[in-house]
Design a protein that fits this description.
Four copies of one chain form a homotetramer. The first copy, chain A, has 14 helices and nine strands. Chain A is α/β, with parallel strands linked by helices. The first copy, chain A, starts with 8 loop residues before the first helix and ends with a helix. The interface between A and B is large, with 46 and 46 residues.
């Protein structure tokens, strides 16, 4: 049967909760101002039951508030930075940020838009040690690695090679995600220490992007910017059937959804009209949080000024 | 009730044909290689029955063929140029191309991507008369006028002002369109001599863009790049109801579709994952056709070489 | 003889001061923190003697300080906003910002980079009156009008048309300038109430951009980003001659400078290697100052937050 | 003393020829239509005398002709492809193109503009073997690796890592160059089998980019887009001294050139005003030549159609 698609652990749980399968998942929530933070620890047993890789998933939800109010924005940045710091491994070596996705497609441009805004410092440490030491900088490097159709290479291949060369202590992979619900688009951030699985993200990465393939811990940060059109269609049809009190068989449902796409075999997604502003806003939030998490000697205000000065 | 949205005359007719209202519409079709060309003449009576402004609409359909085969591409360019030439008014003054839409949103970037590729010559005529005269050029000017949120001005206001100043003999407005069917995305071109109505296009122009508001004839050229999410949802629900043999009432349908959007009041659209390549391809086709239609002394090959030289 | 090129009133005066021609120019200076502000009032008599249009020119100089220190940046923004406000005419109608220059050429991209960062509000006033009134907004519209080779139209033609249509109370034209001295590049801002003359700017506007051609007052704001290569060459040769104690004749000098360009008739300019960062920084300064000058009910901090929120 | 800067072997020879040091350099020239091709073989002895790494350098010169005439453009493409093919090592593994330089600075954007236009196929070989085999494709991958200030990593580090991972049979590095003469800007292409030395290019690469650092053969392709401002100044001053018959001492010369830059320690360069069109044109030429050299089963026409289709 058609598999409903989501990259959010929160929604995976939602899909499976209906079936009462929740062993091996520990959930805690807290509230910081207008931001709701949910942490899920999925054990190997939980992985088997919900299909999501074992590890830690943290979700920040704040709805439209983030956009309109600078204070909510600042709270979201500092909470996200706090969670990120808790995941960053100690030790030598820089943090390497990988901006995944296609810069030319608005809904897939989150990763490159984040790396564009990072305060990279690895070269300063190498070239101007004193300036580096005195300024409160941590060591950060970043690359937007493009997509398969542009480079002929998987992002995982590119980053695995660079990891071998520069030996970072971890990789932070930033990527646009698919959610199951339109309401979540651009209003939720997901952070995880499990990396990225094949088939995730808007670009549908074919290779895993995790500790096994890269050789160092991989933290992933993402924001849902699209809903898969087929997933949306199934949800709609189910709701209608539910309301009208009948149960269409799976074959009928699939026939309708297939008809929708005219057998073109193409992937379609649903996205808000103002996806440029939403993606840019999400990129500002995530880049500010990564800057703050890595450059421990600096405040959010100082980092913002760094970016707004000449 | 929810109004299904389409910018294509072909589909408007489809929606209304069901109700048997076709007075005042004359349709002729022809085939050129793999390209099917449909011309619709809508009379004022037809306008009343189908809700589409009276005038001439020409649609080129070629499906995926255009993308894969250079010959089909060339056929499409020359057929589109032929239809465009037939609509261009004779007389003095340049042709002014207006690239509508938001460059930052892939599915809405068709207009700016077309104006980027036009061979503008109006200034050459003013500055180097002899070069202009000898080269087989027509007189072309172009502007991508941005969107309301970027400029604070309607595209129609901007272009109306420029028309007063430079007095072109007509305006060609290029815009991304909304279709009702996913299969039509990026595979159909619509050409019309009626301009653009309020609420059309991906950006939802608020002001009309036609002879009345601009003061000169307005030809519009567009390619559908999105399907409105609500329209898609209604079509899906209707099909399920149809297959299952029941008639849900309108209120139920609307409730489901509203629920989908969580009362966010936001607009969502559906678009293919490779919308960057599709939009760029469509922009190449339309720009080549406009160049060919305006610069009458040059061949398609010469114009292509113009763009590929240093 | 070769005419040394500068768009800065400060430097024009420098060139002419040597010859003792300073009638009709009144200069006052003041210091605000690290920023030096020079105001020059050129009377019609001064226009005749120094060749610069009669009017008011204000120059802010702060050297490299602006770039490194957020406080100096804020001082520069508030001083520039203060001078701008003093030039803005009272009365009805919006302020229309015109971003001049070629976005594709780094050193010429100042204008478009500024309009990209403006908080335009004219449409909010038209569409959501209450939000507009309560927020402390002034009325601002903006357009980057491209260059002749891209549009086939002079920026002056485009803006003159738009002025007729939307009737702003004034135009602010932002443009990259040519200086005579490398040291001034990206460290000086010039503000003037005289508009822009033919031949000024990096793109060499062919048409004047002032009250006569646009029909409303024109304020120009610019930052030098290039030095004309021929001007630099002459200055170098003169200095060598001076140091070595001889006077080469003009013909020799011109021959050398011509030889430099191989009779290509091309224009060359000199620009710093990091012109992208310098131009972006200058654009941030100018856009912040325009936002602050127009949106009188808001503080610099609030405006910055507006841009950093989602 | 100040070292005059050039990245062109042709000009290095010119500088040294004056001193009669030409041992170990073998030069052959040929003409193809309007294009002049010069091949220089520098032996280790030649390396010692002229300071340029031992290896093969091929230069194509065609002046402004390339820009204006499609036929001259096609000749240049096919000649450059022929020379490139002769340098490509036989054997397994893909060709990896590295677009060096800063996309945000027009004169330094050649590398990224070339990789944007390459027909990458490595992933097609992996994913769709049959399509790959039947189409006459060679195996090509490409990446624009950004600059130090954007990534915190040297391009040489990034590419060395990727080379270890994907094991290409060679790397083609594309980069904007510095010439000594304004007349050469954008009218000369240099091809070499020696890679790129520290301090070369517009971005001043700090690490070598050659067989030693990357582990596979490195072919470099570049076009001069800038002249170093100090180099230009020295040449000018020398010419004046020469014409006037005196010999200024080195200290005087250096003082003047230093004064020019006001001790800012900054690098300035000289570049033509239309550097966007020139760089784009050069990128089209080089990308067409690389596509043709690698995809041996396809013609120039077919490759162009590939890029102009949807």
């Amino acid at each position: 049967m058609y598999r409903k698609r989501t990259d959010l652990a929160l929604e995976t749980r939602e899909l499976h909760a209906k079936k009462g399968q929740e062993d091996g998942i520990v959930v805690t929530t807290r509230q910081a101002g207008e931001v709701k933070i949910t942490a899920m620890e999925i054990s190997p047993a939980g992985e088997a039951s919900c299909g999501k890789a074992a590890g830690r998933y943290v979700t920040l939800e704040a709805g439209a508030v983030w956009r309109a109010e600078p204070e909510a924005f600042e709270t979201a940045v500092s909470e996200l930075a706090k969670e990120l710091r808790a995941m960053l491994p100690a030790g030598e070596g820089c943090v390497l940020a990988a901006g995944l996705g296609n810069r030319e497609i608005t809904a897939d441009s989150l990763g490159p838009k984040v790396t564009d805004r990072l305060l990279v410092t690895r070269h300063i440490k190498l070239l101007e040690k004193d300036l580096f030491a005195s300024a409160g900088f941590g060591e950060l490097a970043a690359l937007a690695s493009g997509v398969l159709g542009q480079t002929g290479m998987e992002s995982a291949e590119i980053m695995a090679g660079i990891v071998k060369q520069i030996k970072p202590r971890c990789v932070i992979a930033i990527d646009a995600l698919a959610s199951r619900r339109l309401e979540r688009l651009a209003s939720t951030v997901q952070l995880s220490d499990t990396g990225i699985r094949p088939g995730s993200g808007v670009s549908n990465h074919r290779a895993a992007f995790n500790r096994e393939t890269l050789g160092v811990p991989v933290i992933s940060v993402g924001v849902p910017t699209v809903v898969d059109a087929g997933t949306l269609a199934f949800d709609l049809l189910e709701e209608l059937a539910d309301r009208e009190g009948f149960s269409p068989d799976d074959a009928t449902m699939e026939k309708i959804v297939e008809g929708l796409q005219c057998g073109s075999g193409k992937d379609f997604f649903v996205t808000p009209k103002d996806s440029d502003a939403l993606t840019t806003g999400a990129a500002r939030l995530i880049s500010a949080a990564i800057n703050l998490a890595v450059h421990r000697g600096m405040t959010q205000r100082e980092l913002a000024e760094y970016q707004s000065g000449w």
